[in-house]
């Protein structure tokens, strides 16, 4: 890998951000009518759609008497990367991310409330520009909120990297991922400060871990705030159209 | 045959958010993980959980308080049945002495053989023959209207159709919307003045059919399914228009009940039925309906 | 705060890639000007200050400069001068410079980072008002030029707004403007159209009347007069042509090495070719300069020639202009070389330059015949570099001075490359100047330590705190002493030995705890890592760490409490290691002795002090250890080493002598080796992936051929299959009649050796860790952290492994450490070369005006010369012999030597020279060439009439000191402090 410097001496990253800055985040809930919950999330150029079906009766072979079965599917559109490529569903990378998504979502969903049920989460990456997992998870969280599924709290993921001079960088873009820096992905429950999932590409010294992790967690908190704002906006719109008559008692 | 497909860019979409304006009665909203209140002196209800000293929300929605019971109601979720709810449902499986029914709730619902009116006799014991005849009465894919009779422990709904108003549905159109959009009313069966009947299932399934004459139809237990009868085109158009109106309202997240549907129907008259699939028309109809409803309320 | 720009880029890599990248434009980037109050900026980054304004006759008002990329690339020498300040550096320019030349970028960055210079980097690419989108059909260059113009314009307007405040107007100061410097005509035109103030670099430099000499540094692409003359050289191929040519295998790529002897000859080492491809003749060389990466085309096989063995220097003292004709001499060279067919090598010609490796060159100005001429020829000290034409108005001041010059260009119609004056080093022949030249030529970083570096030194007075005592093992009571060469001020090792109650012996090696003072990652650490090693020149030491550390706090001087890193063994009487431990400690050396003093104490049986006992134990153990090492196949190598006694005032050498080796040298050496090996094993076990070790590869068998041949002529057989065999066969090479024979054989062996190198354990297989010279499976450097950076790393690893210090990220980073190793190896090599060059220089100084007859030995017999070694000075030189060769007709009176290829002898009459024969030669200095003084060796004994001394100097041939006098490849030779010996300072 190249020795590309991720942070210029002027303190700007390759795309002009400062170390602690997230990319631009746009999100929207309830983008589909068909599923029970859906969301679209755009973090910089990484764009993801998520749809949630359920909770519904679990298939008899998966059925769990104690808690809900979470069924995830992460896939990437053929046109999502620079090179057009047919990605058969369930290629290794996607399978891995699917697994990780489930792990993180499991930490947030109040699984015990839905015995014998199943929740399907489908995530499709429309455009991949780094931190795909994190964006996918954030979109999935929004879709779950939209579906009215009980969550302990938002589960939010963010990535962080480390520049040559040991300054942590939030929200790693594709260029930065490719430049050979390490990438730490953290999925957390920001309010209770719990970590649901953590993954690391490459190595760096243990001394740097706290700083990089804090940076990622800060990113999580910021993303959560943005998501929270969008959720409230969405709720407000939904309720207002019907003049809140569904809850008026 | 040319089909007129209309695909728009996201950017050209009509901003439905305008419908949410002029709101004065916005309630306090809660989102997952948010502290609703201290635990002391309250009980946690649906959509909440206890962590430490606090009761926290687990869904995004509004608070409902019944005495000390605090619950958060999401604005959108799967159907959570209550006893007495009218539902429109679909048979998914025929089992021993019961049918499995999809009611859009968390778990499959059941319709026990003992909870249906069998043709011929009102209240007789169910014999082996009846069990063998089950598929004759209701088979996979059939739609029924029913009422929630009971809720089992894990949340499974048990339905019954032992009333003349319930039973197998014949010709008509099913519209699915989010359950929370269906307003709870005294009656969910309406014979609309525009010339169609409508069943607003609490579970978000809405059945539109040509006007039925309950009295005339009664007595057969609701298992007659006359698929040969030809519905006149005018009636079909009314049904189609109703369907589009309901979808339009649902799209705009407006509550569905007889009045709102009727208003929407009336407001839609200036459009051709197929035009109601376009966003502008949807918005227009919804907006005018909302306006009329608000006027009426005041 | 953020906006997005996306752009699509199509790259061809088999498939078409669509690359969409985000580009955030910001509004929080300050303009860096103090007069601006509109920008939010942090105080420390403001660089453009009114007091730094430059006076220019072209722009009489205060102004800031915006430089275009080419100006930076070409005029970096001008920019390095303090004259120019208040410069706005656009990020567009910065990245273009980086892309084009990493060397210039590095230098430019230095300038930019130097705060007082007032260079402000403005990230125009991410500023919302100055970002420029590439338009369809616009080239990247045009787009960048436009970006520069846009930024300039914005700046000008921005500053205008900033200065519109009432206070500014009232003050009546003239408005500060922004000036763009560009040499691009098109760019300039467009800029003028936009209303930007523009000047060319030359105009601007000339307008700085306060700095009249600055124009000398201005790099010209061409001189006026050249434009008329005809092209001498063929054109170079374009980049694409070269690329295609190499792809089609029509062209070859390689790095060009000019010949030291013959300026019209060079070679290109091409991958896959056994021998470098020969390039001969001016046109074939086609402006390639030593080190350049070039593209060459092979000549048809029938045109291949052999390398000429003729020394050819550009003799002309005057500027011959650009005449195309070859001088007669040149002509003859080629005819001659064509005749030889036996050594024909692939021959080619340079058709294009892939990458220039031009650097700055030391040298002198060739005196000009015309008075007041501004064009001059510069003669580089390095003979591989062609002379360079420069323009200067200070030629008179520069006469007889060492100066530095950079090459700017080499147009087709110019015989010499064009360059410009960079700076003057000082008067020729002055010790300081000459040392400076050596340091520069060997790329030794030798500037003063910067303030930032010094800020990380401990504050004086430095005291040991209780906390320190608590963390360290207290060894202050032990009888620890250090043994070093006389005058040594950076004592990094000390020893002790005591008898334990259980009858065992405890031996401790205590190494200065430098890593305690140099914390990872700070400026001090980075500087030390960059320097890599302390460089010892004769009478001068270039420290790796500031003197406070090297000669005071870290130096284990006697009677003072110092921090040490101790490696302690328990040994039995047969020197078997029974236990070992490492810890940080506080020691108080009881005595800092010289080798000589220690030797005296050991030998003096009346001395029964603790120190004396301890030394005797150590000495005895060391002998056992050495014996064991030898039995394992460790090599005893020899290299002639000399030391100078230097005059303290003039720093000129007074006396030369070969250094003496005492038992105590070997004693210290043994324990250092033992410590190094012990530590190496330990850190390699603890950090299998990232331990810094040192290995010495086994030489290729072919390397030994000259040695085997030379020995076999003397009737000895050298076996080189294993180190052990080699060691024992070397031991067998003893001639009773020639006491120096064995040493000479060992000197020859040394030259067969490979260079020992640092490496990271994770990068090689354990079998490759082997240290050939020492015959140990694993080795590292632990014992000299004051003067070697590798030892500091090893200290840190060791400290981390025993838990007395923590690791840090870079320490465990394999890749970074590998880079560090490369640098250390390079610095180490260069330090050795510099040391040798310094010895050579001092030898020359010593012989200046002297003629001395000395005894020596023939080291090699060559076809036309004898290689003679003077053991007393460790000097090696060549006595050239006349031989019957080529087309030369023997003339009567000539003394003719006949070379016998069978047994490698030279015969003249009845005198026969064998290798290793003793001879007497007369040494004198040939100072005709001021830059290249040479030691001349002339034969005195055996006397050959007509050849020995009374002959005229021309025929005897001249000799140059061969660089390899102190060739010392392996660590087997006393591993440390070789050159420190030449350190004697009379004070």
Q: And the CATH topology of the domain at 29-75 in chain B?
A: OB fold (Dihydrolipoamide Acetyltransferase, E2P)
Overall pLDDT of chain B: 85
CATH homologous superfamily of the domain at 29-75 in chain B? RNA polymerase II/Efflux pump adaptor protein, barrel-sandwich hybrid domain
Give the overall pLDDT of chain C as a whole number: 79
Number of helical elements of chain C: 27
Order of strands across the main sheet of chain C: 5-4-3-6-7
The side-by-side strand order for the widest beta sheet of chain B comes to 8-9-10-12-11
The appropriate CATH architecture of the domain at 29-75 in chain B is Beta Barrel
Overall body shape of chain B = flat
Oligomeric state of the chains in view: heterotrimer
Give the strand content of chain C.
Answer: 15-25%
Overall spatial form of chain C: globular
Helix/strand order of chain B, N-terminal first: EEEEEEEEEEHEEEEEEEHHHH
Quickly describe the structure.
The complex is a heterotrimer of chains A (249), B (298) and C (987). By secondary structure, chain B is an alpha+beta fold.
Explain what you see.
The complex is a heterotrimer of chains A (249), B (298) and C (987). By secondary structure, chain A is of the alpha+beta class. Chain A has one domain: Ribosomal Protein S5, domain 2 (2-Layer Sandwich), CATH 3.30.230.70. Helices cover 28% and strands 27% of the residues of chain A. A five-stranded mixed β-sheet of chain A has the order 1-2-3-5-4, covered by helices on one side. In chain A, a hairpin with a 2-residue loop joins strand 2 and strand 3. The model of chain A has no long low-confidence stretch (mean pLDDT 88). Chain B is α+β, with helices and mostly antiparallel strands. Chain B has a domain of 47 residues: RNA polymerase II/Efflux pump adaptor protein, barrel-sandwich hybrid domain (OB fold (Dihydrolipoamide Acetyltransferase, E2P), Beta Barrel), CATH 2.40.50.100. Chain B is 21% helix and 27% strand. Chain B has five helices and 17 strands. In chain B, helix 4 packs across helix 5. A five-stranded parallel β-sheet of chain C has the order 5-4-3-6-7, with helices on both faces. Chain C has a five-stranded mixed barrel with strand order 8-9-10-12-11. In chain C, strands 15-14-13-16-17 form a five-stranded antiparallel β-sheet. Chain C is an alpha+beta fold. Chain C contains 27 helices and 38 strands. The interface between A and B is large, with 43 and 47 residues. Chain B: Its main location: nucleus. Chain B: This is Exosome complex component RRP4. Chain B: It is found in: Nucleus.
